[in-house]
Amino acid sequence: MVFHEANRMKRLPPYLFTIMDELKREVVQRGGDVLDLGMGSPDQPTPKHVMDALVEATTKLEMHRYSRRDGETEKALRKAIAQWYEQRFNVQLDPETEVVPLIGSKEGVAHFYLSFLNNDDIVLVPSPTYPIHFNGVILAGGILYNMPLKPENDYKPELEKLDSHVVSRSKILVLCYPHNPTSAVADLDFFERVTRWARDKNIIVGHDNAYSDIVFGNYKAPSFLQAKGARKVGIEFHTISKSYNMAGWRLGFAVGNAEILRILEKTKSYVDFGIFRGVQYAAIAALTGPQDCVTETVKTYEKRMNVFVNGLNSIGWEIPRPKATFYVWAHIPLKFSALTSLEFARLMVEETGVVCAPGTGFGEYGEGFVRFALVTGEERLLEAVKRIKEFLSIRA
Ligand SMILES: Cc1ncc(COP(=O)(O)O)c(C=O)c1O
């Protein structure tokens, strides 16, 4: 029998992390030491009080049942999320109508698209960006329109310059600040301009705020919902994966416009049975418990950022210092400019064992760049810089 995947699956770009995984395997097979700065999977442990909450939850019978919207744990989680939003951003949310827990924000973005897109609806997606922002459009059968994010525009899309025919057929605009992969940040003024534009054009906004806690120095990342009128046009995605080192636990949330969320929740009710109650219980502990664990996590990333960015700058690979996230978005050095980002990343892993993510893994406008994820300790980062230095000088 021959199995033909759906046509929309053929429209998905190759997942570059799979290619990088194969290259890593080859290095290991040759006895090499891999220094993996490829995927953004936090390496630090989940806080102890959160793990304890999960252990406690597993002893409670009701935790083992199917999750239900009107369950006690579910109500408590929605309340905890609303309370967290108020404390973090001074944004008040109705836990019953303006909060939807997700099996991770990646799942949420995918179902958000599925909830709203008809076949000829366009989604305005930044490029580069986190892959579900564009792959989700294809999976839902919509049309992807890449808005280039350029360093000279501070990695902001030029909404006013978009083709009016494209805009009139667009249903959703997706944004993400602090941004994966470029680490660019936005201020409230930008979100207010976006809100006015989206309202005028009748376009739904989905803002992904996964990195709002991972910020350095005096910088504070705003919530999109702090912008005047934002709740009338859109929703915001969030996750506990980064702030609390809980990437594998699978819990995120969408908040904001009640009608958009009602439709998202309706789609989800046909597809999934919600989140394991034990994980919900632990997430409540994370969101309502002591927050010094977040401060510690951020301090660790800030130190790593200093070590790595200073290191690259000292060997002549000049990178601006990010204000947020744990990513370093680096222009491919000039002497390698004949290579694509995938070819450059391949050469670097083959010759040094240092793994980075090729820029094109984040969309067509990621070409010319690579991303380093600082998900390993300072000593290993220094080792990476040392190897990169040799690599760059040997190839002089
Ligand atoms: C911008 C962005 N959004 C969402 C996610 C996924 O988050 P979650 O673990 O909640 O699915 C990531 C993970 O790297 C991300 O970088």
The gist of it:
With 396 residues, the chain is of the alpha/beta class.
Describe this structure in words.
The chain is α/β, with parallel strands linked by helices and 396 residues long. It has two domains: 7-45 and 293-394, Aspartate Aminotransferase, domain 1 (Alpha-Beta Complex), CATH 3.90.1150.10; 48-288, Aspartate Aminotransferase, domain 2, CATH 3.40.640. 42% of the residues lie in helices and 14% in strands. It is built from 14 helices and twelve strands. The chain has helices at 7-10, 16-29, 48-58, 72-89, 105-116, 132-139, 164-168, 188-201, 230-233, 258-271, 277-288, 292-314, 341-352, 378-394, and strands at residues 35-36, 99-102, 122-127, 143-148, 170-176, 204-208, 234-239, 252-256, 327-331, 354-355, 357-358, 369-373. The strands form three sheets. Strands 2-8-7-6-5-3-4 form a seven-stranded mixed beta sheet, with helices on both faces. The chain has a three-stranded antiparallel beta sheet with strand order 9-12-11. α5 packs parallel to α6 (132-139) and α5 crosses α10. The structure holds pyridoxal-5'-phosphate (PLP). Pyridoxal-5'-phosphate binds at residues 40, 104-106, 130, 176, 180, 208, 210, 239, 241, 247, 252.
How does the helix and strand content classify structurally?
alpha/beta
In CATH terms, the superfamily of the largest domain is Type I PLP-dependent aspartate aminotransferase-like (Major domain)
- Top CATH class of the largest domain: Alpha Beta
Shape assignment: globular
CATH topology of the largest domain: Aspartate Aminotransferase, domain 2
Taken in chain order, the helices and strands follow as: HHEHHEHEHEHEHEHEEHHHEHEEEH
